[in-house]
Amino acid sequence: MAVKLGKYGIWRGAGGLTPELAVEVEKLGYGAIWIGGSPPADLELAESLLDATQSIAVATGIVNMWATDAATVGAAYHRVVAKHPDRFLLGVGVGHPEATADYQKPYDKIVSYLDELDEAGVPRDGLVLAALGPKVLKLSAERAAGAHPYLTTPEHTRQARELLGADVLLAPEHKVVLESDPARAREIARPPINMPYLNLRNYANNLRRLGWDDSEITDGGSDRLIDALGLHGDAQTIARGLNAHLEAGADHVCLHNLPDDADPLPTYRALAAALF
């Protein structure tokens, strides 16, 4: 794959990303900025972040297949990579059924959308799929550069690597809370993990595949589950948790700072010192 992500990147919702923040993230040594949520098809935010920086990669995590036309995304992809070669990675996915009234046969939608991206000339090594379950993980190895799983654990990463095989990109997201008080950290992590993700069947089913039972997934999630999905502690503790993904077979890990509305730079700085 031509795009170099490094070992660690940051994941942040589109509304919280600015060119100024991108410059600071690059200075800290992170290899990639993942634009979270469902960024629009024009990819203008990705282009602005690339314009402001020198070498850091930018990826979408993810463009929603139900909301964005593949031909439009394909044209925007070519515009961005012509200006910034080897620095942009297009992440696409079907999201979750509760958010889309037309959500039918998601696997068929992924295949048809990938066919359309092929027709638009988007190279497979410039593309990653949002993937959790075995079927889509395997598809990400066959039709894209690899997979970008969301709301996962190192155990999922280990299983995903076994399914993907070698030489396929695996870039999971993991939420972090720079807080050493467990009770306070859970107060921060539980709301955005529980709502919506623990109430969405694709994420809940993925957790069940990993061995979590319903008693730990329902009613806001058990403390043990929240601790697993939202790493907390000091910078060194969180760094060890993120590094566990690399030990399990990930190529790149994107950290998602919580709470989403807080200034992320203190966490990015502290973790950069621990990770690099």
From TrEMBL:
Record-linked InterPro entries: Bact_Lucif_Oxidored, Lucif-like_OxRdatse_MSMEG_4141, Luciferase-like_sf
An MF annotation (GO) of this entry: oxidoreductase activity, acting on paired donors, with incorporation or reduction of molecular oxygen
SUPFAM superfamilies to which the protein is assigned, alphabetical: Bacterial luciferase-like (SSF51679)
Signal peptide: none
Cellular-component GO terms for this entry: cytosol
Gene3D superfamilies per record: Luciferase-like domain
Protein name, as recorded: LLM class F420-dependent oxidoreductase
Organism this protein belongs to: Prauserella cavernicola
